[in-house]
Amino acid sequence: APGIPGISKHAPPEPVSLTAISISLSSRSPFLNLFLKLSLVAKLAFLPTNASKTFSSAVGGHLMTMGDPEVVDPAAVAAIIGNMIGMDPPEHQIYRKMVAPSFTPKSIRNLEDGMRNKVRELLDKVADKKDFNFVTEIAEQLPLWVLCEMMGIEESERPKIRDLVNNLTDASIQQDPEKSMQVWFNYMELFKMGREMIEERRKNPTDDLMSVVANTQVEGDQLPAELLDGFFLLMVIAGNETTRNTITGGLMALTDYPAERQKLIDDPSLIANATDEMLRWVTSVIYSVSYTHLTL
Q1: Is residue 72 predicted with pLDDT exceeding 50?
Q2: Which residue, among 164, 170, 175, has the nearest Cα to 66 in the 3D structure?
Q3: d(CA 229, CA 194)
Q4: C-alpha dist (Å) from residue 260 to 229, 254, 269
């Protein structure tokens, strides 16, 4: 079917042979050996219903290393690689349940008017420009605003968070070992901001997401410091980057397939389904991993 499959109807993806993929990876890439191992598998079969016992988000280590500073500050490393997306059930459900009320349809609807106003504000700023950078002026601005509103981050702090997040996401792509200490300083700065917010919310609770996390207890104890660090990191980086990439990739797709864009212009009722389709179509993260206990 022409255009982006799924705006009008969904179609099952065609099977892909890993042995037919041509890809260029640096010899320094931490993913090279993994890809070569996967490319030797002639056929990938669907796993049985007990696959959840096979794959893990917590077991098997990580494909990234934090470098020398991990020896100096192991607690920080625990925050970076041990947050909620690095947990398996039942631990994962405990922490997911903690934040779930802030992401219900009702809670998100409460943000809708503010989001619409923010979109109008961003579009008004570029309306008279012949050329502008969509990523920096639109796509990175909106999710950062939404997340900061949910977390209760002051307007004055948001440019600093934006710059730190951009530095860290750029570093994750470039994998430059010479910048490892600068990356570490950026992490420490984000941790400092998060810890100061947690301390303030424990003294003066509010109704924002950071207050919920700061004052939640599990089995009578407050959440450990490294998990609080990891939560703040997860929100401002993972929640921000994925949405920014989806917005950007969605625009690129509609530009590449103008007939699909015209469908949305002619019938705005398709936009909700188009949003779901963009989530499927766009690669919103560079990589995401589930580890297996099986030997390939």
Answers
A1: no
A2: 175
A3: 7
A4: 42, 6, 13
82-128 residue pLDDT tens? 677 777 788 888 888 888 888 888 988 999 999 999 999 999 999 99
Alpha-helix residue ranges (DSSP H) falling in the chain = 32-39, 69-72, 74-81, 91-99, 105-126, 134, 141-151, 158-174, 180-203, 209-215, 225-233, 240-256, 258-266, 271-281
Q: Within 10 A of 290 (CB to CB), how many other CB atoms are there?
A: 11
Q: Which residues pair with 253 in a beta bridge?
A: none
- Paired with 222 in beta bridges are 217
pLDDT digits (tens, 9 = 90+) for 224-275: 888 888 888 888 887 888 899 999 999 999 999 999 999 999 999 999 999 9
Confidence of residue 199 (pLDDT cuts 50, 70, 90): very high
Nearest to 227, CA basis, from 103, 107, 98 = 98
- Is residue 6 within 8 Å of residue 260, measured between CB atoms? no
The answer to whether residues 84 and 231 touch, using CB atoms and an 8 Å cutoff, is: yes
Contact 228, 214 (CB under 8 A): yes
Residues paired with 55 in a beta bridge: 292
Burial class (CB in 10 A: 0-12, 13-18, 19+), 31: middle
| Predicted TM-score (pTM) of this structure | 0.73
